[in-house]
């Protein structure tokens, strides 16, 4: 039986896009406390099912697919620019296709604007009216208001008119940054992107026996299964190692690993991979916020995801991307890396930043391991025990040396040189991801 929290989330998902909701309304409709309703609405907001806007309220929005994540809703625009809604709040759930600055004549605006776009403009009421008539929303900069006639038109068309105290250039910069951040988020693989869905996941109930495990193992050729209660809550994991030498009639509750490590759909694949390596897990249950089984991922799924991510074109640049783009293999010794310190890699003092340095060390070691073992690895521990100032524009050579390599662990000494002098020393430990 589902909890009140789950019932509220399902109720919110069933609401029409654009519909307003409130804590009091949910509490009254589903006969729950306002505290329970508030917590469920907050989770729905984290899951991007609703968006809360000051002086407007909470609005049901369309959950964006990963391939369309680079588009912003007008509700998100309001939050990004610290704005307020002058009219057309019924269209806040809609997605903008592009934005343009209205620093031109009205006839020229008409040529560039189209339905679904956002016009960024000052206190030019005729431009506001023109944009709305063409199916576009309006963002009024400089903190200006608009006419009652424009507000009435916005309400009738469900096209938002938003005002902000920022100027047009600042607003355009903020929106560009928000789109870039979302494009980076799009590139980050989440567990929900690679998991085997519940319909394709073999499970066992805690009341079942070792004999039923053996039967399911023969049918599926799998050696590990999540153990659940009747309501779908994950209570354990059982593997072929757990049932060796056990009687067929032995209950699974006595042989399973209770309270297993789990993942959620919003966890990154990198985090899940680290957990699986460090804990020696081959199969990881994926659960909902309420602890109900939602699917599973295997170590093989994680490896495939890492390989796929390396082949994808970057659409937004993180600091890791910037550092990696500056790294080049030494032609004489392919394990060595050469790079130049550029402004994006420095701190406020003009030195190579600690974040860029750790990325550089970790990636250099990964490259060396791939050349030696041709396998995937993740850094587990990094100790920098000598470091000198590395100024902007410096050319640096990084030399990795493998000190010890076992089946699961690699220990590596990494040295940095600039202009023939040693400028840094680090010891990095990696865990190997086995296939």
**Helix content estimate:** 25-40%
Query: What name goes with the CATH superfamily of the largest domain?
Result: HprK N-terminal domain-like
- Got a strand count? 22
Tell me the major beta sheet.
Answer: 6 strands, antiparallel
Percent of residues in β-strands: 25-35%
Shape: flat
Strand numbers in spatial order across the main sheet:
17-18-20-21-22-19
How many discrete domains? 4
Reported CATH architecture of the largest domain: 3-Layer(aba) Sandwich
- Structural class comes to alpha+beta
How far is it from the N-terminal to the C-terminal residue, by CA? Answer: 39 Å
- What is the CATH topology of the largest domain? Udp-n-acetylmuramoylalanyl-d-glutamate--2,6- Diaminopimelate Ligase, Chain: A, domain 1
Note poorly predicted spans. Answer: 65-69, 311-315
**Count of individual helical segments:** 16
CATH top-level class of the largest domain: Alpha Beta
Overview of the structural elements:
- This protein has helices spanning 4-14, 23-30, 34-46, 74-80, 106-112, 125-133, 148-157, 168-187, 191-194, 210-220, 240-243, 252-255, 269-279, 299-311, 319-326, 354-373, and strands at 20-21, 50-53, 57-60, 84-87, 99-101, 118-121, 137-140, 161-163, 196-197, 204-205, 224-228, 234-239, 257-258, 263-264, 283-287, 293-298, 328-329, 337-340, 376-387, 395-405, 409-418, 421-433.
- It has 435 residues and is α+β, with helices and mostly antiparallel strands.
- The protein has four domains: 1-62, Winged helix-like DNA-binding domain superfamily/Winged helix DNA-binding domain (Arc Repressor Mutant, subunit A), CATH 1.10.10; 64-187, Udp-n-acetylmuramoylalanyl-d-glutamate--2,6- Diaminopimelate Ligase, Chain: A, domain 1 (3-Layer(aba) Sandwich), CATH 3.40.1390; 192-307, CBS-domain, CATH 3.10.580; 316-433, Thiol Ester Dehydrase, Chain A, CATH 3.10.129.
- A six-stranded antiparallel beta sheet has the order 17-18-20-21-22-19. It has a five-stranded mixed beta sheet with strand order 4-8-7-6-5, with helices on both faces. A four-stranded mixed beta sheet has the order 9-16-15-14.
- Helix 6 (125-133) runs parallel beside helix 7, helix 13 crosses helix 14 (299-311) and helix 15 (319-326) packs across helix 16.
- The two termini are 39 Å apart.
- Mean pLDDT is 85; it is low at 65-69 and 311-315.
- Residues 197-255, 256-314 form the CBS domain.
